Amino acid sequence: MKLSWGLIASSLCCSASAARPTVSPETARLILAQRLGLSRFHSIEHADTETIRHINAYGGRQQKLFGAEDSDRTRAHVLMWIEDTVQDEATVIINDGSDRSQDFAISHPPPASDNDRLIQDFISQAQSLPEYPDPKKHTYTSSIEIEAVLPSDNKPELYNEYLSVFRASKSDKFDSEEIAKVLGKVINKAAELGFSTTVVLMPASKSHSKRAASPWGTYDLPSKDARRENPEAVLSSNPVPSSSPISKVSDLEDFPVITFADDQGPVRGILPSCFDTLSACQRQTHNCSSHGECKLLHKGRGSGSNQESVDCYGCACVPTVVRHDTGMETKKKVTYWGGPACQKKDISVQFWLFVGSGVVLSFLVASGIGMLYSMGSEELPSVIGAGVSGPVRK
User: What single string gives the DSSP state of each residue in 235-256?
Assistant: First the structure.
């Protein structure tokens, strides 16, 4: 008799406080990248408030300020990816070295081929990172213990001395009961040694389901000639070069703080000049602050693996015209707008008029002072002093 996967997920979570949330594949990728220490390759530039909340809730332990207490805990992490499970939705079970686990579901889970590509990209990103310092050998010991509790006929692969990846599918002939026992051993060992675990249970792909081009979203990959460097200082780390200049990379490990303005209020903060989608441009610019509209500024070049840039959407500002009828005549006031969200008044004309007037006035004053100085320094003509004589001496 096979065990239900829902029963496995609920048995590993000691307390079910609320309904299990369901996230999109892109949000799940950001959570997995944060947990595996790979967030520098995954951008959250256009993430909404709900995505940030899920990342903070399920993204794992935050890095301590200035690296404090990092040497006292293990950096080992085990990723268990189980394909073709007997369930309707994808489930992710996470544990950060405690006796309590959490889980969430993934809506519209991608097929196995896209999952394999995502895992390989995770591995490539992990191998390009500098090796974590392990002075007390906690990470090294945890990796040995992880290998011992997993099935001997399907050993996990260790990458960059910290990430253990265990993959299984229906071809490995594991039933639900065996996987449940393995998960229980891993969770118990994680609570004992303090390493983190991430378990992904993917259902069988449906043959009639429509396949998306990039179900997990877009992210950066390290260049092929990138070399790992062993950092000598904990306080600094060199950014990893990216093979794609498409998106800006944000580091989730360094206490991500993102503030979102009210949709009805003014746009605040620094906004990018380009957005990947039209909806992202309309949402983050509050529809260009009602002073214009979002348009496609230029299309991206290339496609697929040869893609060089993505579509750029931005605000096209429109001047505001206000007419005032005063008796016989009509006055018209035109206000021009600028900025990435058309949220700033364009006063460039007034500015250059003010600057130009100031420069002209300064030149006239300086010329007048110079003319007066030159006139005062000239010698008087000799005719003025010719008829002047001194007093007569008696």
Answer: S--PPPPBS--SS----TTS--
Contacts of 387 (CB under 8 A, 6+ apart): none
Mean pLDDT of 319-344: 83
Alpha carbon distance 379, 382 (integer Å) = 9
Phi, psi torsion values for 197, nearest 5 degrees: -130, 145
- Say yes or no to pLDDT of 304 above 60: no
Backbone φ and ψ of 297, nearest 5°: -75, -45
Residues in the chain: 394
Classified as helix, coil or strand, 164 is strand
Sequence-separated contacts (24+) of 3-11 with Cβ below 8 Å: 3/176, 3/177, 3/180, 4/86, 4/87, 4/176, 5/85, 5/86, 5/87, 5/91, 5/176, 5/201, 6/87, 6/91, 8/176, 8/179, 8/180, 8/183, 8/201, 9/91, 9/93, 9/103, 9/201, 11/180
Assess contact for 122 and 170: CB atoms under 8 A. no
Cβ proximity of 103 and 213 under 8 Å: no
Read off the amino acid at residue 13.
Answer: C
Burial of 158 from C-beta contacts in 10 A (0-12 / 13-18 / 19+): middle
* pTM for this model (two decimals): 0.55
Structure tokens at 52: 């940030």
Query: How far apart, in whole angstroms, are the C-alpha atoms of residue 317 and residue 291?
Result: 6
Does 216 or 12 have the greater pLDDT score?
216
pLDDT at 377 over 70: yes
CA–CA gap between residue 295 and residue 315 (Å, rounded): 6
Confidence of residue 284 (pLDDT cuts 50, 70, 90): confident
| The pLDDT of residue 238 is above 80 | no
